[in-house]
């Protein structure tokens, strides 16, 4: 379906929809502050429009937001995402330590986040690593492949 | 790693935007390659070399970095 949507519109549309789902969840949840669902929806639409405008800029960020990044810009995006993951793990660990010391019952969300990010990292390694299933070309010759890399 | 991208581009009186369009990358990426901040992937390095009708090892010279290592 995303193929039929203009590249510049894809990410803003997804973000906007995610915000509207959040607003819907707030509305369904009920409670006295129902009006906040409307505020969330307005912010989500504004966020999507802002994202769309930014995606039109001639910059690395614009290319990434506009889904037209080249290889270097994709690498920049991957590094930024990796940094975000590290920050999330550090925040989860910090939260876990603080809640364990202050109010142990509230610690589980931080522990869960830490576990999810940790398993996500391990899953990434298993997906993108070379693995051990590929034998070296000269494995049958009875000697190990030599690497020119020295440590 | 030194490269000849800027020299070859200016010899042909091309702008960075022209070269970027010809290679199918962004202007920012051409700037990064010229300044040596970014080493292109092998396919892009070949594309650049072919565009300027040079061998890859003429376009990208690893000697300077190896000498310093």
Describe the structure.
The complex is a heterodimer of chains A (151) and B (69). Chain A has 151 residues and is mainly α. Chain A has helices at 7-29, 35-55, 60-65, 71-102, 108-128. The longest helix of chain A has 32 residues, at 71-102. Chain B has helices at residues 5-11, 16-23, 27-34, 42-51, 56-59, 63-68, and strands spanning 2-3, 60-61. In chain B, strands 1-2 form a two-stranded antiparallel ribbon. The relative contact order of chain B is 0.23. Chains A and B meet through α4 of A and α3 of B.
Strand content range of chain B: 5-15%
Major beta-sheet overview of chain B: 2 strands, antiparallel
How helix-rich are the residues of chain B, as a percent range? 55-70%
Distance between the termini of chain A: 49 Å
SSE series of chain A: HHHHH
Q: How much strand content do the residues of chain A show?
A: under 5%
Taking pLDDT < 50 over at least 5 consecutive residues as the criterion, the unreliable ranges of chain B are none
Tell me the total number of β-strands of chain A.
0
Largest interface: A-B, 9 and 11 residues
Query: Can you tell me the number of structural domains of chain A?
Result: 2
Q: Structural class of the secondary elements of chain B?
A: mainly alpha
Order of helices and strands of chain B: EHHHHHEH
Helices and strands of chain A: which structural class? mainly alpha
């Amino acid at each position: 379906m995303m193929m039929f949507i203009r590249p510049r519109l894809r990410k803003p549309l997804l973000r906007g929809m995610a915000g509207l789902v959040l607003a819907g969840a707030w509305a369904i949840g009920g409670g006295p502050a129902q009006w906040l669902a409307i505020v969330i929806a307005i912010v989500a639409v504004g966020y999507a429009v802002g994202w769309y405008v930014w995606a039109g800029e001639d910059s690395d960020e614009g290319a990434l937001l506009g889904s037209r990044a080249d290889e270097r810009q994709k690498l920049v995006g991957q590094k930024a995402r990796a940094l975000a993951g590290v920050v999330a793990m550090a925040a989860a660990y910090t939260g876990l330590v603080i809640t364990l010391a202050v109010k142990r019952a509230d610690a589980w969300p931080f522990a869960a986040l830490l576990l999810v990010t940790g398993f996500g990292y391990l899953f990434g390694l298993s997906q993108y690593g070379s693995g051990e299933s590929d034998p070296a070309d000269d494995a049958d010759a009875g000697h190990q492949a030599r690497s020119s890399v020295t440590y | 790693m030194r490269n000849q991208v800027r020299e070859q581009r200016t010899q042909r009186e091309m702008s960075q935007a022209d070269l970027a369009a010809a290679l199918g990358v962004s202007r920012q990426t051409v700037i990064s390659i010229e300044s040596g901040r970014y080493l292109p992937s092998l396919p892009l390095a070949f594309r650049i070399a072919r565009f300027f009708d040079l061998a890859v090892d003429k376009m990208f010279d690893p000697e300077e970095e190896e000498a310093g290592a």
